[in-house]
Amino acid sequence: MLRVRNTITIAADPQTVWAFFADVPRAPTWVPIMEYVAHAPPNGLYEGAEYTEVSRVSFQRFTTTWVVEEWTPYRRQAYSSVSRAMQSTLSIEFTEEPGSTLVQQTFRAAMMPAAPLVGRMLEYVFGGRVERGLRTSLRNAKALIEEEVRVQSGRIS
Questions:
Q1: Do 79 and 69 contact (CB within 8 A), yes or no?
Q2: Domain range spanning residue 8?
Q3: Which tens digit of pLDDT belongs to each residue from 2-56?
Q4: Is residue 123 assigned to a domain?
Q5: What's the domain count of the chain?
Q6: N or C: which end of the chain has fewer CB within 10 A?
Q7: What is the CATH number of the domain that holds 140?
Q8: Which of 70, 68, 106, 64 is closest to 87 using CA atoms?
Q9: Beta bridge partners of 23
Q10: If you ran DSSP here, which 8-state letter would residue 32 be given?
């Protein structure tokens, strides 16, 4: 099983960081592989809600439906997805720190669950790419959130 954990500190309060990560239709602006969100609840996410994203990795396009497994405002978001190609979970935890929020993202995936040997090989081959992509996503989120905080506070760069 592939397991990737990334952590980043964002200079913003947990409510601001939470709102950014909860805005799934906006995710393609900071998640490099995500092309667009094909479906999301019109009034935002909640436990049990589903959303569908379309992503591209190299020349391959994937449509993935995620289910919100846990939705604890300002503390934790957890999602799961199951398809023929992959079973995966994503959790995002938010911890308030003085003047900032620590964000920890954990992604777990079993590729090709019907063919475990092939799946483990794919996890080995693509694991580094997945880790870099998730790390880039967090860095992009940090930059966008911190820029929004600067603009809202009048410290426009």
A1: yes
A2: 2-32+68-152
A3: 899 999 999 999 999 999 999 999 999 999 999 999 999 999 999 999 999 999 8
A4: yes
A5: 1
A6: C
A7: 3.30.530.20
A8: 64
A9: none
A10: T
